[in-house]
């Protein structure tokens, strides 16, 4: 017989979370250290120590510290591409498209604070070939926002006297630099930040509504 006074069996422990591949672990730690200390101030020995590895063991997974930086920057660029470029074929008016693009841009930054910091702050340390590739990518993003402004001017929703390049630079300055001050988990969500930025910017960018004159008889 079973003793009814015996305590119930302990619940089964939840299954252990699957271990991430070592290469992914290395990239995550590199993103954190590069964002906190800077690329040049982080050594391969620092990376190995954070991962509980011997310094030489890292080279079984990566070729160099430069390869790590390139991987972090390339991955961030792909995240921005995936978030933004689907808007190109959207039929919404330019002000709404700019607002949505700003939200998506800030969402990528907020969801990837460490790699975004590396992307925007440490990319200048890339090798010449990778530096050129990222410069070309930045030109593509500039053109994306510039095209939104041009769309708005043509459809009459944005002021006709706007300089598309300068306006695109203003938008990019707002969304790119969010990594310097935004903290996930605070009082503002990425959507809140994007809405406030968009409200302030679009107030100055949008064309004045056409006021009908008195009806002639």
UniProtKB/TrEMBL annotation:
Region (Disordered): 1-23
Positions with biased composition (Pro residues): 1-18
PROSITE patterns: HTH_TETR_2
DNA-binding region (UniProt annotation): 43-62
Gene3D superfamilies tied to this protein: Homeodomain-like, Tetracycline Repressor, domain 2
Domain HTH tetR-type: from-to ranges: 20-80
Entry keywords, A to Z: DNA-binding, Repressor, Transcription, Transcription regulation
Pfam families with a match to the protein in the record: TetR_C_24, TetR_N
Keyword Membrane: no
GO MF term list: DNA-binding transcription factor activity; transcription cis-regulatory region binding
Superkingdom of the organism of origin: Bacteria
Protein name per the record: TetR family transcriptional regulator
Protein species of origin: Deinococcus puniceus
